[in-house]
Amino acid sequence: MPGLLSLPTLCHFLLPWAFAILHKALGDAAPHPGPHYLLPPIHEVIHSHRGATATLPCVLGTPPPSYKVRWSKVEPGELRETLILITNGLHARGYGPLGGRARMRRGHRLDASLVIEGVRLEDEGRYRCELINGIEDESVALTLRLEGVVFPYQPSRGRYQFNYYEAKQACEEQDGRLATYAQLYQAWTEGLDWCNAGWLLEGSVRYPVLTARAPCGGRGRPGIRSYGPRDRKRDRYDAFCFTSVTAGHVFFVPGRLTLSEAHAACRRRGATVAKVGHLYAAWKFSGLDQCDGGWLADGSVRFPITSPRPRCGGLPDPGVRSFGFPRAQQAAFGTYCYSE
């Protein structure tokens, strides 16, 4: 009949649309109809540490006639991206707090790689390099991963006292930040076994179990146990904090000191009483091993062990041992100081 499309013609028009819908349903990107300007990265995960300079590679195979490159950071758990920098290949403009420490590498005319100087704990995460040419935008994603250590944290008044925002603040006060799920998982593979649930950066509540036992979620398989997403304002748990290499060093001052005397002892040596994150970083990265309990800035008493032995906490694995939070007037401990 005149005006009707033949079956072959219908297939010609409908098949590409059908395949695109199928790819989307399967979670795969539909085939890109135009040229690919960005080269796929050789390494999608870039490893660094606090204080270092990190380079996130983004290279054009061939440039379109007119384009911009937009760098952004994907914020976990917040479903948003933070703009870092925009460049047209000749000039670049930074945005936000990270933009002041970020610049283009510009190793050659096709190089759109991002350089971050003075890497901070909050810089870890997923980044996107997006080429914008007004026709077919495309992007590559990379992950900046910091070498660090995860430590569980609770305040002096006992366990399960923090809502999400209080947990976030507590970690920052101890020279850390809330750990991500990936960081907690890495710590679990390295031996972290903890029976109290804690907040993570994404807003979930979890705890790592190496030795399954009845008081820790039952005798199932080892793993990361999850309470799932919780109300960030109402629900209360501990915190899992993450810290990395520090610029300074931690040292022990022996004695039988009160907490105020510990502060004075560190000041006389041009230092401050160490934070919990400082002690964990010194244990993890400097191999600090001291079989003496010492005051820390939050009022807790702890000591780091890299070579376990019977009279140093009695546990078979390395770690930072804790005496809890003694009375501040109790003159029974030395102190750990931090100096830059």
From TrEMBL:
One of its GO terms (biological process) is glial cell differentiation. One of its GO terms (cellular component) is extracellular space. GO terms for molecular function: hyaluronic acid binding. Residues 1-27 form the signal peptide. Keywords: Disulfide bond, Extracellular matrix, Hyaluronic acid, Immunoglobulin domain, Repeat, Secreted, Signal. Gene3D superfamilies: Immunoglobulins, Mannose-Binding Protein A, subunit A. Disulfide bonds join 195-216, 291-312. It is found in: Secreted, Extracellular space, Extracellular matrix. Its main location: secreted. Residues 149-243, 246-339 form the Link domain. InterPro entries: C-type_lectin-like/link_sf, CTDL_fold, Hyaluronan_bind_Proteoglycan, Ig-like_dom, Ig-like_dom_sf, Ig-like_fold, Ig_sub, Ig_sub2. Residues 35-143 form the Ig-like domain. PANTHER family: AGGRECAN/VERSICAN PROTEOGLYCAN, HYALURONAN AND PROTEOGLYCAN LINK PROTEIN 2. Belongs to the HAPLN family. Mediates a firm binding of versican V2 to hyaluronic acid. May play a pivotal role in the formation of the hyaluronan-associated matrix in the central nervous system (CNS) which facilitates neuronal conduction and general structural stabilization. Binds to hyaluronic acid. This is Hyaluronan and proteoglycan link protein 2. It comes from Enhydra lutris kenyoni (northern sea otter).
